[in-house]
From TrEMBL:
Gene Ontology terms, MF aspect: odorant binding; olfactory receptor activity
Keyword Cell membrane applies: yes
Range of residues in the leader sequence: none
Keywords: Cell membrane, Membrane, Olfaction, Receptor, Sensory transduction, Transducer, Transmembrane, Transmembrane helix
Membrane topology of the entry: Multi-pass membrane protein
Coiled coil regions, renumbered to chain: none
Organism field: Drosophila simulans (Fruit fly)
InterPro entries per the UniProt record, alphabetical: 7tm6_olfct_rcpt
Record field: transmembrane: 33-51, 57-75, 123-144, 179-199, 247-273, 279-297
Family from the record: Belongs to the insect chemoreceptor superfamily. Heteromeric odorant receptor channel (TC 1.A.69) family.
Main location: membrane
GO terms under biological process: signal transduction
Pfam families noted in UniProt: 7tm_6
UniProt protein name: Odorant receptor
């Protein structure tokens, strides 16, 4: 079974393989540059446009949101391109663990795996669909304005972007953005969620296996073998989560700063605009940021919660029925499960819902401070 056939990551990996972001071949390597470079050029033109909009605060904030969102999408994609070897190696590790469960005799574990695949696949489809529709909304919104404007404000030095035929050419050039930006922005979010869902599934399987240790029908040797198998499996899961953290820790730290700043700025913008269309747009953008952040932190939080259940399952193993060797081994394993298994923001703060709440509190605090300073 190829990596694209694994429902946990299949949709995202299939897109990235087609675009040569992952698994490029000599004949397809050009695709990643054809995919990324036009969006990079548009992002630079957005930056020039921001410099022109410095005096108009609402317009500056709105266009700063678009600039930051596209910059973030580019940052994710370039990260995968630059760290392609590490991502491909990690996906190979996922495939090995996936097939070890799929080929086992544990029917309960295979059921957990199938449910995890469905959940990750549905989430990827939802993310792509929502992103596509969101960008389509941004694409058509200039049609309802009295003045000429592009969906994503861009500028070039010495060029009037609202004069014909420049305006029409730029507008037509931005028509593919719903497809391009959706394929650039959401696969990373969906991939992260799929990888975290698999980590949670492996921990659920471990809890189930621990619950099968014990009983009068099991000999001492069989109990030891089952326990040793669980310890080895737990080590594999720990390595998996550690490798995942190494891949994403820095990017989620940068995104926490970007998203927190954007949410603060958009909340402030709501206080100074009067256009109903812009109000609706800003609310949609805020909800989009919150959704992406919640997806990250909720999926990472589930790994932490499931790891706590592993420690409880180890504690509930009927050690009093076993011999001294089993008890000592179980005690060492119990101590090992006390170590947190988590993804950390910048390798500092754990990605939990408590951290998500703290990030929102910080964004709102900066918003109230900004509103108080400006008197808006």
């Amino acid at each position: 079974m190829a990596i694209e056939d694994i429902g946990l990551v299949g949709i995202n990996v299939r897109m990235w393989r087609h675009l040569a972001v992952l698994y490029p071949t000599p004949g397809s390597s050009w695709r990643k540059f054809a995919f990324v470079l036009p969006v990079t050029a548009m992002n630079l033109m957005q930056f020039v446009y921001l410099l022109r909009m410095w005096g108009d605060l609402p317009a500056f904030i709105l266009n700063m949101f678009f600039f930051s969102a596209i910059f973030n999408a580019l940052m994710r994609t370039w990260l995968v391109i630059i760290k392609r070897g590490q991502f491909e190696e990690f996906l190979d590790q996922l495939a090995t663990l996936f097939h070890s469960i799929l080929d086992s005799t544990d029917e309960w574990g295979r059921g957990i795996l199938r449910r995890a695949e469905r959940e990750a696949r549905n989430l990827a489809i939802l993310n792509l669909s929502a992103s596509f529709l969101d960008i389509v909304g941004a694409l058509v919104s200039p049609l309802f304005r009295e003045e000429r404007a592009h969906p994503f404000g861009v500028a070039l030095p010495g060029v009037s972007m609202t004069s014909s035929p420049v305006y029409e050419v730029i507008y037509l050039a931005q028509l593919p953005t719903p497809l391009l930006l959706s394929m650039m922005y959401m696969p990373f979010v969906s991939l992260f969620a799929g990888l975290a869902i698999f980590g949670k599934a492996m921990l659920q399987i471990l809890v189930h296996r621990l619950g099968q240790i014990g009983g009068a029908e099991q000999s001492e040797e069989e109990r030891l073998q089952r326990l040793a198998s669980c310890i080895a499996y737990h080590t594999q899961v720990m390595r998996y989560v550690w490798e995942l953290n190494k891949l994403v820790a820095n990017i989620v730290a940068v995104e926490a700063i970007i998203f927190g700043s954007i949410i603060c700025s958009l909340l402030f913008c709501l206080n100074i605009i009067t256009s109903p269309t812009q109000v609706i747009s800003i609310v949609m953008y805020i909800l989009t940021m919150l959704y992406v952040l919640f997806t990250y932190y909720n999926r990472a939080n589930e790994i932490c919660l499931e790891n706590n259940r592993v420690a409880e399952a180890v504690y509930n193993v009927p050690w009093y029925e076993a011999g001294t060797r089993f008890r000592k081994t179980l005690l060492i394993f119990l101590m090992q499960t006390q170590h947190p298994m988590e993804i950390r923001v910048g390798n500092v703060y754990p990605m939990t819902l408590a951290m998500f709440q703290s990030l929102l509190n910080a964004s709102y605090s900066y918003f109230t401070m900004l509103r108080g300073v400006t008197g808006k």
